[in-house]
Amino acid sequence: IVVPTLQGKWHSVKIIGVIHCTHNQIHMPKYIVSLALLLFFILPALPTATHAESICPSTPGTLVKLPSDNNPKTSADSAVYFYANDCKRHAFPHSRVYFTWYSAFNNIKTVSAGTLASMPLGSNITYHPGVKMVKFSTDNTVYAVAQGAVLHGIDSESRAKELYGDAWNTLVDDINDAFFGDYIIGTPITGTGQYNPANERTA
Q1: Do 92 and 166 form a contact (C-beta atoms < 8 A)?
Q2: Rounded distance between C-alpha atoms, residue 190 and residue 24, angstroms
Q3: What's the burial of 20, exposed, middle or buried (CB within 10 Å: 0-12/13-18/19+)?
Q4: What is the DSSP string of 3-15?
């Protein structure tokens, strides 16, 4: 009897039993028929390893980096990546971005150059929503960061103070224009209640 395996391929299974032939008809013992039906319908429904478990070279949700080469002139070993459920490594463009997500460089797994190379590069990590405001090097607009890497221009200093307090100007980071494509420009914030930093941080 040929049955599908967990991988969706067909596999021959030898079943020992007695088959009776009468008047050109084949009569199979009931237990053989039941076993065949069990193999055909039940086995494909059994749980299998997930896609990430089967092909990801590391555990998704892990921070990874290369081991230090103890050479201050090189920088490849200082880059930290977030290894996500899509089995891709996502780079933190700068330590300022990293520290909007984490408080210290802890629990970072070092991996070999070969393992790192086997992890495809994904999109860059963007600023954590609600933590800081940002602006681009050649653009004077100050933006609030929302979920989904959406930037909302803040229409005035008084609005920025309303959202982030008297020290709002200490919470603005400059972003290199090269990373403009990492974000989506949304609608400007022009009124009270359009944006709440605390809600964005915990959404």
Answers
A1: no
A2: 85
A3: exposed
A4: EE-TTS-EEE---
CA 29 to chain centre: 52
Please tell me the pTM assigned to this model: 0.71
* pLDDT recorded at residue 99: 97
| Residue in the block written with tokens 């002139």 | 73
Task: Name the amino acid, one letter, at 144.
Answer: A
pLDDT per residue as tens digits for the range 46-104 = 334 344 444 677 788 999 999 998 888 888 889 999 999 999 999 999 999 999 999 99
Give the residue from 86, 160, 161, 165 showing the smallest Cα distance to 119: 86
Three-class secondary structure of residue 184 per DSSP: strand
Nearest to 179 by CA among 131, 120, 137: 137
Alpha helices in 67-189 (DSSP H): 95-98, 113-117, 157-164
